[in-house]
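Design request, tokens follow.
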């Protein structure tokens, strides 16, 4: 309460100057996030930069300037589980909180619209930090697409044997070449229940963020433009800069570094 009354006793012009300065910085952070950050993430970014400000004040100054986070996009299903291939049991059972890196990876597929046609994207996330550890893009949604994402992740991370790989039961993940690669890595396959998107909610949340950030109710001019945008989003923004509420508003790589140092 003493801080509040001290603030109230300040001259009005000083408070207005503070509002103007902090509002400008809030707008900068909002623009840097491509208008995706709401008050909690902007507040975390400001505090990380040494600016002492409350989340309520951030929210108020955002309202004054007409700033808001982009809304969620409609979820679209890409899984084709109408096949006769064997599927793996659900070993994860929605236990998304993983204590160490490279214990559980989760994968899925989506597509991005361009004026040249669809660009399909496969990603592999580490459930410990939500970091994207592998990804691939192609004009076809064949089994080689998620396989390329898995191989990138394996090359980057060198996971130990016993890694759990989680996915839906789509034909790409149930395919012989994908399951053979898991066996070569000595990884355990795990698949969601049929038709339940919430079983792979972490990857679906990533796709929602990516599409909200990149599409903004439009389509890419070309597939090459889309590829570059996805690369920038993953390598520059998402893994290294985007603050994740589940991680205490740390970035995925910051969260991993802190867990490794602990």
């Amino acid at each position: 309460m003493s801080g509040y009354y001290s603030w109230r006793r300040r001259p009005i012009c000083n408070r207005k100057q503070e509002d103007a300065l902090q509002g400008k910085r809030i707008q900068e952070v909002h623009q840097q996030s491509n208008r995706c950050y709401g008050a909690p993430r902007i507040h975390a970014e400001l505090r990380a930069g040494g600016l002492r400000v409350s989340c309520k004040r951030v929210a108020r100054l955002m309202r004054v300037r007409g700033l808001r986070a982009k809304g969620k996009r409609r979820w679209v299903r890409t899984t084709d589980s109408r096949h006769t291939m064997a599927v793996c049991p659900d070993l994860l059972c929605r236990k998304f909180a993983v204590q160490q890196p490279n214990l559980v990876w989760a994968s899925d597929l989506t597509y991005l619209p361009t004026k040249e046609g669809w660009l399909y994207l496969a990603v592999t996330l580490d459930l410990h930090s939500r970091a994207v550890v592998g990804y691939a893009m192609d004009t076809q949604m064949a089994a080689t697409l998620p396989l390329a994402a898995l191989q990138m992740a394996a090359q980057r991370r060198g996971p130990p044997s016993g890694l759990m790989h989680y996915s839906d039961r789509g034909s790409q993940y149930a395919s012989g070449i994908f399951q053979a690669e898991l066996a070569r890595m000595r990884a355990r396959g795990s698949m969601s229940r049929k038709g339940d998107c919430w079983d792979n909610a972490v990857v679906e949340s990533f796709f929602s963020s990516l599409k909200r950030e990149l599409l903004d109710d439009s389509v890419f001019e070309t597939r090459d433009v889309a590829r570059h945008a996805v690369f920038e989003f993953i390598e520059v923004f998402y893994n290294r800069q985007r603050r994740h509420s589940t991680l205490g508003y740390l970035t995925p790589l910051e969260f991993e570094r802190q867990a490794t140092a602990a």
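Comment from the thread starter after seeing the answer: thanks! The chain has a mean pLDDT of 84.
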